[in-house]
Design goal:
With about 280 residues, this protein is an alpha/beta fold. The protein folds into 3 domains: about 120 residues, Response regulator (Rossmann fold, 3-Layer(aba) Sandwich); about 40 residues, no CATH class; about 110 residues, LytTr DNA-binding domain (OB fold (Dihydrolipoamide Acetyltransferase, E2P), Beta Barrel). It is built from 9 helices and 15 strands. A hairpin with a 4-residue loop joins strand 9 and strand 10. The chain is elongated. The mean pLDDT is about 80.
């Protein structure tokens, strides 16, 4: 078994201090090595003992819990868990990178969850493994490479996607237009060209239906006919026809026929409210 993490507990109420110690003693991963009843004593003990964790009340005689953390130098600052009866300091506490903010009375089950969080933070190897597993799962579902997702984690950019987010279209003046994919309502084929329809206009693009379909997110664009793709977010209603076909209504008097081969899938999509 790994050596337990050392902890100092701080509270000016003797009964609260005793209760916290008794509960933590039931968690083998934590060893309480000292107790303090005020902020100054807590700082002295941290300098002397260098604990792994500091369980700290917020309202203390003299220095309060926030001031205790601010007074400790970064090289001896333990992982901090605030244990308090007051919820109004939570934001300020987490700005100090507190591991947890536990409301009194702290029961054993709640403290066990806190200790699990402490161990996770204390063991960076576990954190790396968990991070990789999450990125791999996200990559498997999004089609984005893990390296690209790692770069995204360090940025403020929207979640990257393997699918095209803009279509590059040349207008009649041979100028390039960058058309956001989310603005497309539907696409239909006209010979060797694709007609790309938005709310305001129609753009003509020379590309095959198959190639264009492969560039678009199939969770957003669904085939309703061998020559038609529709943005499911633009569907307003669906009406069944007698021959197992159906009609989609997109608003602005736009009606698109869903062929028999695709009608059942589109009906189920709408009924499951995935639009």
């Amino acid at each position: 078994m790994n050596k337990p993490l050392t902890a100092i507990i701080v509270d000016d109420e003797p009964l609260a201090l005793e209760g916290l110690r008794l509960r933590l003693e039931k968690i083998p991963e934590i060893e309480v090595i000292a107790e303090a009843c005020d902020g100054d004593q807590a700082i002295l003990l941290c300098h002397e003992l260098c604990p792994d964790v500091l369980f700290l009340d917020l309202r203390l005689p003299g220095l309060n819990g926030i001031e205790v953390v601010q007074s400790l130098q970064s090289d001896i600052l333990p992982m901090v868990v605030f244990v308090t009866a007051y919820g109004e300091y939570a934001l300020e506490a987490f700005e100090l990178n507190a591991i947890d903010y536990v409301m009194k009375p702290a029961n054993l089950g709640r403290l066990k969850k806190t200790v699990e969080r402490i161990i996770q933070r204390h063991n960076p190897q576990n954190s790396v493994k968990e991070k990789f597993k999450l990125l791999k799962a996200l990559g498997d579902t999004s089609g984005v490479s893990i390296s690209e997702l790692e770069n995204w984690l360090d940025s403020n950019e929207p979640l990257p996607t393997a699918f095209c987010q803009e279509l590059v279209i040349k207008n009649s003046d041979h100028e390039k237009i960058f058309l956001p994919v989310k603005d497309i309502r539907w696409i239909d084929a006209a010979g060797d060209y694709m007609c790309v329809h938005t709310n305001k206009e129609t753009h003509i693009l020379r590309v095959t239906m198959k190639k264009l379909e492969n560039q678009l997110d199939d969770r957003l664009f669904k085939r309703i006919h061998k020559s038609t793709l529709v943005n499911i977010n633009c569907i307003k209603s669906i009406r069944s026809l007698r021959n197992s076909e159906s009609i989609l209504e997109l608003g602005d008097d736009i009606h698109l026929k869903v062929s028999r081969n695709y009608s059942s899938a589109i009906q189920k999509l709408i009924e499951s409210k995935t639009i």
